[in-house]
Amino acid sequence: MNINKIKAGIIGGAMTVATVLGPFSAAVPSITADAAGGGDDYARLLQYSLYFYDANMCGDKVDERGGMSWRSDCHTQDAVLGGFHDAGDHVKFGLPGGYAASVLGWSYYEFKDAYTGTGLDSHLKTLTDHFCEFFRASTTLSGDSVSSFVYQVGDGDADHGYWGPPEKQDASSRKIFSTTNSASDIAAEYAAALAANYVNFGNADDLKYAKALFNFSTKNNSFAAEGTSGFYYDAQWASYKDDQAWAAAWLYLATKDNTYKSFLDGVMSSEFQWGIYNCMGWNNAEMGAACLQAEIEGDWSKVTDCIGRKGGGSNSYFFDQKWGSARYNCSAQMAALVASKHNAGNYYDWAKGQMDYILGNKGVGGASAVCFVTGFADNSAKNAHHRAASGYQSAQEMSGQTGYSSNGHVLIGALVGGPTSENGEYNDSIQDYTANEVALDYNAGLVGAAAGLYSKYKTGKVVDSSTIPGVKGGTVIVDPTQPAVTTAKSDDPIVTTQAPVTTKAPDGTGQRVEAAIGTDGGYPSFDPKGADYAEVVLSGLPSNQSGFNGGLGYTGASGWTTDRFEFSSDGSGKATVKLDLADAKNANSAQIQIWWPQEGTKVDSVTLIYNSAVTPTTPVVTTAAPVVTTAAPKPTSIPDVTVNFGDANCNGEVNLSDAVAILQYVALPAKYPLTAQGLLNADVVDNGTSGVNGTDGLAIQMVDAKLISTSEFPITNSRLQELAK
User: Fold this and answer.
1) pLDDT tens for residues 244-256?
2) Which of 123, 311, 438, 673 has its C-alpha lying 20 to 30 A from 49's C-alpha?
């Protein structure tokens, strides 16, 4: 079963805050490409990247409009027909759908010459019209006002329990979610997409509905939790303002009505007065709003400041977040190319160099080169997490498989999640949704970057569709089952820097050994030597931040494993983290991976702790490269005997990181378990039963927003719902 799509908004947000790097140079050095992957065939890349949307098209017009021969009409009993399936699943989630459609419109608006020059403008228009037709059909107007609004079709939990083609899915899972007074973020994204489509192609109905949905959004200023919570729930970041600013910018371009411009300026000067710190993504539209504001008013400082922080002129692969790193790489490219087009900087070489990594011309972090666009190059990812393409007819058939069925299809032009670390770790398995998820929002930035690069360089050419596997008029090529492809870590030996020193524990509870610190794949490492715990002292932490986290990596009984841990600083830039080595004690080496904050953090010392006295062994020097697999993290804290309501991660504090831990646990408990103590602490909502669910995470978010205090825990469900209104 696929994970609930907490995705980057929660998992990525828990792991990283904007890394502050040096400003971009006027002309970033290009990264030399070789011929291993997709080259610089930007015309064909734009062509292929659009076909992913054909593969995910939904409704009773797929036969008529869709470009894939292995797809046909589906979900014809949906309450609202049309639209697109979100990812490898078949739910029509509103937020990423609206976001993807608006970014596709943005790509055409900025780089129209790329579409007209390649003859792909009609294909793009077919896709954006299909999106907008669905958005209008989801909206009920009373005069010029929205009386009700369908913000989602399909239930995420029910849908993720089904693995098979959309054409055969039971209609009973297609629940409708509607509102008369919420879903402001989704309504604003729909408004942005509709207004952009009007700017590009002039359909008056698109503008009419865009205005109405924008007014609906700004009137209600609230989120819809039903159906979205645990999937694409923007309330996690309390950010409908970015979506509204994005929509207002498009409405100003469509109407030149200064009311929209004033709204845009107001949001950008209040919500984002200190700048932009996020790449474009389904829950972060402020970069797009800042770009359009800059085009309207001429001040590109917020845009270029953020691009500088995100790129810094580095020739390394731009890695922003673990989950779906490639989509953030591509959306950063797109923004940089838009700025370059408007002479706000020269980031062309940087974007071209980053696309070399995406297309498999260069390997990330020294790993073997992989093209992260499916069906595009010889070294393309083969096993994207996608039900329709996989060829499997049930979850039972798919269970335990890493590649596609012999009845599967080549998924053309989909951007997979990509590397899960800066070292290039990547697992080409249908089971790995972190590395191999594909989604509407992923491809939107890829399309924009491809259009921008073609607009600049004019390289490559579109091909006859009859030569593309699975495209109508072409040949349906069956993709045989592929073995999982993993990228090994560095085979550099672990170099010890000091001899172990045996000392008596200050509290007399067990022997302590100061471990030698080496390097393993670029990470600080140590030999666990049979210890029960490791006490790690860190320094260089930002004193004005909290909610730090990382992972303990080692080769255990199930192969390469990474146990996630969280910690806080003492305010002086230092922290001491106690790690449970229950499953790592017999490993030859364990890596200390600090995910946030990576920049400036140092491992000062590692002390091994034993429950009883033992004689430490000589440090082991190894050159073996462990295989990357997926394993469930194990608890890293020792339970307390009292309940500290809200402290799900047992770090002594109650904040947003606890809500993140709960939502991750609810989505996939095997991968993101809570300790026994954490489960007791996390159950903060009294709803008549014990257990942890999404409402517990919602309650802790309210603590973080200062709507309630932890003294009110456990809180009644009725009180929680009252506050959520």
Assistant:
1) 999 999 999 999 9
2) 311
